[in-house]
Amino acid sequence: MINNKLVVGITQGDGNGIGYEVIIKALSDARILDSFTPVVYGSSKIFGFYRKQLHNIEQLDTYVINSAKDAKFKKINIVNCLPDNIFVEPGQSTPESAKAAMRALECAVADIKAGAIDVLVTAPINKRAMNKEGFGFAGHSEYLQKQFDCPDHTMLMVSDRLKIGVVTGHIPLKDVASTISVERILRKLRLMKASLQRDFGIDQPKIAVLGLNPHCGDGGLLGDEEQQIILPAVQAAQAEGILAFGPYSPDGFFGLSNYGRFDATLAMYHDQGLAPFKALSFQTGVNFTAGLPIVRTSPDHGTAYEMAGRDEADPQSMMSAIYTAIDIWRRRRQYDELQAGKMIEKPSADDRDRRPGRPQIA
C-alpha cells in the first residue's frame, strides 16, 4: 500500500460505453483521494477524451504510470496498457473496444496477484463483443473464478437496503430448471453465509431462499422444484447451522418488503434477483463477487452506449462500488485478525495436557 492508503484498481471496461465517464465523475472530488489511491487501467488518451466531454469537472490531478507499483498518493494514476493509436467511438460496440476491455482486465488482475493493488473495481463490459474476440467467459465473475482457481463463486448484489445472491448466473432462462440442484443451492448458501460473516460483519446471517415457479409451484400444480429441490436444500442448510428460510414466492416477497426481515436473499436465477434489486437500488447498487480470495466489485449497470459521451451518466453506482470494495477489504482484515487471535488463544490438546494439576503421561 501507499502511505497506508488502500490502492484501488479500476478497469476501464468498454471504452465506448460510460465507463470512463462514471470513473472520472467518481474521482473528480479531490477530497476523495484522501481515502485511497486510485489506479485506472486503460488509456490516458481515452481518459482525456472523455474528460473534455464533461462539464463542471475541475482540473484533475492525473499521473501516467507503467505499473501500479509506481502509483502516486493523492493522484489519479493511469496505467497505459493500451496501444497509443487506440480509437474512441462513443456509443459503438467495436472489436477494438472489446479487446481493450480484455487487456485492461488482464493488466489489473496481474497487478492484484502481485500485490500492487489491494482491491479491484471493474467498469462495465460488453460480454457478447468480448466473447467474439476470444474472451471465453460469461462475465467478469467467471473469468476471475478461473484466474484465482476458485471452486465456486456467486454474484452478490449489494446496497444499503438489501443483498441478493443468485444460484444460476449468466445462463439462458431455459436452462435454469435443469441446472439447479440441492447441492448447488447448498453450496451457494454456504458461500453466502461465509461472505456475509467475513465481508459484511454479520455474525449469524439470516438468508431467505426464493422459489422457482409462480406461487412456489402452487403445491406442485405449477412445478415441483420447490418440493423436490429447493426445500430439501433449505433443510440441509439448516442442519448445518445455516439460518436459511423458504422457499418464498418472489412476487409477494418483494412486493410486501419481506426482504427487510433477512440479511440476504438467494434467488434461483439472474433476473429473478436483479430485477427487484435494480428497481429498489439502481443508483447505488453494487455487484460483488463473493467467494474470491480478492475483493472485486462493479457498478450494477451496463455499458449504456446510448449515454456515452453525453455527460448523462450517474456516477453513484461507481462510487458505491469503490467504497464497498474498501469496506469489504477492511472487514476481511478485521475478521481474519479476529479469527487468527482465536486460534492463538485456543489451547492445543498438548497444552491442555500440561495444565497445572493435570497428571502427565510419561
Q: Describe the largest sheet.
A: 12 strands, mixed
The overall average pLDDT, rounded, is 91
Outline the low-pLDDT stretches.
Answer: 351-362
The helix count comes to: 12
Total DSSP E strands: 12
How is the largest sheet built, in terms of strand order? Answer: 3-4-2-1-5-12-11-6-7-10-8-9
| SSE sequence, one letter per element | EHEHEEHEHHEEHHEHEHEHEEHH
Anisotropy-based shape: globular
- How large a portion of the residues is in β-strands, by DSSP E? 15-25%
Report the span from N to C terminus: 51 Å
Q: Return the structural class.
A: alpha/beta
- Rounded to an integer in angstroms, the radius of gyration calculated over CA atoms is 23 Å
Q: What is the share of helical residues?
A: 25-40%
Describe this structure in words.
This protein has about 350 residues and is an alpha/beta fold. The protein has 12 helices and 12 strands. The chain has a 12-stranded mixed sheet, sandwiched between helices. Strand 1, helix 1 and strand 2 form a beta-alpha-beta unit. The protein is globular, with a radius of gyration of 23 Å. The C terminus is likely disordered.
